[in-house]
Structure formats: C-alpha cells, structure tokens
Amino acid sequence: MYDIIGDVHGYADRLIALLKAMGYTKKNGVWQHPERTLISVGDLVDRGTGQRETVDILRAMHEAGYAHVIMGNHEYNAVGWVTQDHQGNYLRPHTEKNKSQHAAFLAACEGQQGWYNSTIAWFKQLPLFLDLPELRVIHACWHEASLATVKPFLDSNNALIEEAWPLSGDTRQALHGALETLTKGWEVALPAGYFFADKDGHKRYRIRTKWWSETARSYRELAVGAGPKGALPTQDIPGGALPGYDNKKPLFLGHYWMRGTPHLLTPYIACVDWTVVEPTGLMAAYRYDGEQPLCNSKFISV
Ligand SMILES: [Mn+2]
C-alpha cells in the first residue's frame, strides 16, 4: 500500500529520518520499501538547506518505481520562473517577493546548470494529481470544475502538455485560474480594508480557505494556515458556497502548514503538510492500507 508524505521544502535530513522511521532502506542508491510505495504531495523545494538532495532522493525513487511524485505549487512556480509566455514574460514574475521565496533553490542550483535544466524538465512531467483506484492525491484542492478545465491540457500521465505552459500565465484564460485552484487552493478575497501579514511579513489580502468544510461560513472560520485569525472578519463570505468534497475516495493534500499533532481534516481528507519548515513543525506521512474512512492513528511524523 501507500505512504503519503507531506511537503519537504528542501529538508532532506527530515525526509530521510521519516523514510527510516517507516522502514525504508537505501539500496543501490535508491530509498525503497519491499511492500510499500511512497507518494509525495509535491513541494520538494524552496526554504531548506537540502534542495538538491531532496530532489535527488525523490526523483531516484520515482524513476525506479518506488514513488509517485505530484506537482506542488513550488514546482509549478519553479517551472514558471524559467518559462515564458507568448509575449516573452516569465510565467512567474521575477519580483523581489517571488525571488525571495525561490532563493534557496536558485542558490543551490548555481553552477549546476545541467542539474537545474534536468530538474525543471522533470518538474514539467509531474502529474497535477493522482486518481488511483484506492485514493486521490492533489497538492491543494480537489475541485471537479477546475479538473475539467485543465483536462484538455493534460497528457496521459495527468501532467501539463508543453503547449499549455505559455498559456498558463494568462489570467484571462480559464486554465490559469484552474491551475491556481488545484495547486494553491481555493482562495477568497477579504473585504475592503482587511489584510493580514503572512509568515514572511508580506501583506495578504486573500485567505486560503478550508474548501472542504461543510459547516464553516465566516472568513475567520474558513481561513486556514498562517495569519492571525483574530484579525479576520466574523461575517459570512458572500455567496458562501465552497466546493466541498464528494468523499468517493480518501483524498490526500499538502500545502496547508498544519500545526500541532497530525490529525485528519475530515474522515475522508488528510493533509500531510505539518510544517517541517518551522523548528516545532513535523515531517509527516499517512500510512494508507485501504481503510475508509481514514484514521488518525495512521499518521507518522518525525
Ligand atoms: Mn508547501
């Protein structure tokens, strides 16, 4: 069965510790388990000191058939950093904010042009999601309408086709919004005058939502992740309706900077990103053995 691991963000030492804790061993240079397949929810890069090592570990596992790796928003942005639209603009604008978010990866790639080119090419081949018989995996938001929008732009492995990349930055195209939703989540603009500062001190005027929630209605209840919740309005989000989830199969996500002891979001949804990037955070996984609903006791973390 499957071990689904959270965002690594270049913390290769924590990744290795988690692999060891789950009984994986390194043979012929490749981490592997005799009975289990690893699944990474993406976000391999940015922030930590083991950028290249993280990619090398997971790419080797992927290519040897011991792991699935899907695209996180950081891989999506890494491709966009070096890929231009039809007007010659980078898909990921080279602003100071974007540059600082990507700095650890770019620094690790300095003088490593061959490795960098090869890694970007590999990122482009990563599927946006997995829909296996037993489970689904996506980085941020399983949204049927967005999945339908991107479908004509996907290859048989659910990776974006080459022609889709230059179009993906065009905010007038439905493709752009759909990719943003799938990889970055369902975001909602705050009412005029409201903002919060994220963990890097950048002002944010939109919140990431608990898009799966069937009960929460207000901005404050629906906000997920970093940011002082107390600063958010208690009024309901106008129009209200969030996509929700159909619970047809267990779903695994990364992305959300969860804090505390790993636990399920709902009986059918597990986020495996428990914020390894912070000193008190965890590198976590969910060890899936076919159970429905999911179970809090199946999390493991280091
Ligand atoms: Mn992440």
UniProtKB/TrEMBL annotation:
Superkingdom, taxonomy of origin: Bacteria
Gene Ontology terms for molecular function: phosphatase activity
GO CC term (a single one): cytoplasm
SUPFAM superfamilies the UniProt entry points to: Metallo-dependent phosphatases
Domain Calcineurin-like phosphoesterase: 4-91
Entry protein name: Metallophosphoesterase
